[in-house]
Design goal:
Blueprint (H helix, E strand, L loop, with lengths): L12 E4 L2 H9 L3 H15 L3 E5 L1 H13 L5 H12 L4 E3 L2 H13 L4 H13 L3 E3 L3 H4 L6 E3 L5
Length: 150
């Protein structure tokens, strides 16, 4: 006997969630948009949709909070941790991002450098070549080298 079409578990929709959506929710600077985002996140919490995002969105959130809103690092850290711990939201590389945002705030390192350092450790890479030594030198277990002409 053949299975009926449509039988079996229904697949939940997946959608990418962009930076501006998360910023409206975190900052509540446009209340009606923040409320709409909260409604979307509640749908995800109920399992009606799977929302996904990535490290580039997190980096853009940090950059925007720093450069446009002039928020302190500790507040930015807390906002990013809120996003990383939002039920129903899947963030690629969330463990690396959480570690990086803690280093970013605690050691006063540019977020991208902190993320790269965490990624290096995760990949077993212990040496970085850079002309920007200042931040990488604050990362434990990373050897910093500057390329030299032979």
């Amino acid at each position: 006997m053949a299975a009926h079409e449509g039988s079996g578990p229904k697949r939940v929709r997946e959608a990418f969630i962009d930076t501006n959506i998360l910023l409206r929710y975190l900052l509540d600077d446009i209340p009606e948009q923040a409320d709409a985002v909260e409604s979307l996140l509640k749908q995800a919490l109920r399992g009606e949709i799977v929302l996904k995002t990535n490290a580039m969105v997190i980096a853009e959130i940090i950059w925007t909070c720093e450069s446009y809103y002039n928020l302190p690092r500790e507040e930015i850290r807390n906002k990013v941790l809120t996003i990383l711990n939002t039920p129903g939201l899947v963030v690629a590389d969330s463990d690396l991002l959480a570690e990086a945002v803690l280093i970013y705030a605690d050691k006063n390192i540019d977020f991208i450098d902190a993320y790269n350092g965490c990624w290096m450790k995760d990949q077993g890479v212990a040496t970085v070549y850079t002309f920007d030594e200042k931040h990488y030198k604050r990362l434990e277990g990373i050897e910093v080298k500057v390329p030299r002409e032979d």
